[in-house]
Amino acid sequence: MSQAVSYRVSMPKPHAHLFDVVADFPASTDEVTVCLPVWTPGSYLVREYSRHVQGFAALTVDGQKLPFKRVDKRSFTVRTNGRPFRLRYQVYAHELTVRTSHLDGSHGYFNGATLFYYCEALRKLEHRVEVEAPPGWSVACALDRQGADFVADDYDELVDSPFEVGPHQVLHFTAADVPHEVVTWGDPQVDEKKLLSDLQKIVETQAQFWGGLPMKRYVFFIYATDKGRGGLEHRASTALLYPRSGLSSSKGWEDFLTLACHEYFHLWNVKRIIPKALVPFDYSQESYTTLLWAFEGGTSYYDNLLVRRAGLMGPQRYLTRLGESLTSLHATPGRKQLTLGDASYLSWVKHYRPDENTVNTAISYYLKGEIACLLLDLTLRRLTRDAKSLDDVMRLMWQRWGDGSGVPEDGVEAAATEVAGQSLKHFFDRTVRSTEELDYSVLAHVGLEARFRVRESASDKGGSAPRAKASGDDRPKGFLGVLPKNNTAIASVLDGSPAMEAGIYADDEIVALDGNKVDAPSLISRCEEKRPGDKVKVAVFRRDRLTEVTVTLAAKPADAVYLARIDRPTEEQKAAYKSWLGAHWDDGSDQRPTL
């Protein structure tokens, strides 16, 4: 016990959103530097957690003050004279996301990186946490428990094991012989039996995919909120945040299942098969890799596919969701500016820090990575006559680097090449290392093709064929080229659009079109009622001054994408389709999870 770092976390005043932390460190050197991470693994943004620390003090274990000094924004040096020492401090926590910590009168949730100071020289020691919960509250965490303490093998495991403290009840199920727990907050109003059944199917499908599970117990933390969607993976748990209203619809439930499936897939892809650039974790600064497209985008590809394989999504719904992803990709001008590898490398300043121009200069490595992995999967299937697939690449990486030693920067391409039995340099040059448009011709291997059409409304996400139109309703639509921020303002102006050429800016407050009052959404729809080449006058408030801009409309682009079946597929294409999607060619069902 003396050679462990121990923490005691309490929350005597939850309405103040303050966690009280006492940290005990064993004896080491005469002067010890303690630090707080600046980021959380899995979320590639420097978040400066130290800004929420207050009341920092250094003491002997019997309560005598020790001298300390601030080294930088996240670090203190404590003069210990080689003796054990103690830290006392508070952490303000009022940000409800999966990457941060949150405490109020209903619960306390904390990620270790936001709460626990560490000493670099002592990182490999055992780390223990005792939580003093308010009356009526209990503690949930994936770490093993010994008496009052939750025990982590080292600091890395502690940071990778979030805590939920509250008046929750724990649901249980077993899948692939491993116990799983489900802890909910926010009154999600879900059918508990359905929730456990569907999660069990997803877990068992992934266990079959990988050949077993890599942990002895797992915890799902589910947070139902008024808005927001996200997840963060951990070594034996995940935190899922999802809109409460979305859980009550079939589409929303389907989307929630893909989120849960995504984070569970990270048990292997990211948590154990990890880019070598992140080994070991450097909590003090950014760590750069070009491979996030394969780790996050690849996981995005499999989250839909494995929900489909689990029987929780029909084949047509799966193709529709792929089409929606393709539509999002082609609605992003930044795909022509930033390569997929660079999008991964610059995640620290691009993906997690979007602004009004991000749509023009960047692409999500989740989004384009998903499509790249789809194309890689189908390429491998075509080259090997469906004997091999991306599944085999993932399992090869698990076999080779699943010990956490780290995947080298050329490791994904090398593994794919090994499975293909031939060079894939041309594929990776085009798909990952260039800004060329992606080659969708490989879809023909499974009897599909990508088709493009004009979006039919502001809510049109693509993914489906055009609706039948009344006679005379097929004329070209006028295109302005703006994205609304809300009902009154412009969020972004698309590169090369008529709006940009004419001088409409992000944050302009929309007032009128041709003298008639409009808001941001109706401005777009009114422009679509006009023809390409028509001139319109757009009145806006810009920094509180009224400005009128004349715009010549262009033709609305055909950037909505859907996957269509070819007219006369061969038997080989039908067989390839079944091998890939696990459905017969004639099965066009639109199955969704029933609620």
Describe this entry's structure for a reader:
With 595 residues, this protein is of the alpha+beta class. It has four domains: 4-166, Immunoglobulin-like (Sandwich), CATH 2.60.40.3650; 170-265, Neutral Protease, domain 2 (Orthogonal Bundle), CATH 1.10.390.10; 315-444, Neutral Protease, domain 2; 478-555, Pdz3 Domain, CATH 2.30.42.10. It has 15 helices and 29 strands. A seven-stranded mixed beta sheet has the order 4-7-2-1-10-13-12. Strands 15-16-17-19-18 form a five-stranded mixed beta sheet, covered by helices on one side. A four-stranded antiparallel beta sheet has the order 8-9-14-11. A hairpin with a 2-residue loop joins strand 26 and strand 27. The longest helix has 19 residues, at 192-210. It is globular and about 80 Å long. The relative contact order is 0.09. The model has no long low-confidence stretch (mean pLDDT 96).
Layout of helices and strands:
Blueprint: E1 4-10, E2 18-25, E3 31-35, E4 53-59, E5 68-72, E6 75-79, E7 85-92, E8 102-103, E9 108-110, H1 112-115, E10 126-132, E11 138-140, E12 144-146, E13 149-152, H2 155-159, E14 163-166, E15 170-175, E16 178-185, H3 192-210, E17 218-225, E18 230-233, E19 237-243, H4 250-265, H5 292-309, H6 315-330, H7 340-345, H8 358-361, H9 365-383, H10 390-401, H11 411-420, H12 425-431, E20 448-453, E21 478-479, E22 482-484, E23 490-493, H13 498-502, E24 509-513, E25 516-517, H14 520-528, E26 535-542, E27 545-552, E28 554-555, E29 560-565, H15 571-581
Parallel strand pairs: 1-10, 16-17, 17-19
Antiparallel strand pairs: 1-2, 2-7, 3-6, 4-7, 5-6, 8-9, 9-14, 10-13, 11-14, 12-13, 15-16, 18-19, 20-29, 21-28, 22-23, 24-25, 24-26, 26-27
Helix pairs in contact: 3-4, 4-5, 5-9, 6-9, 10-11
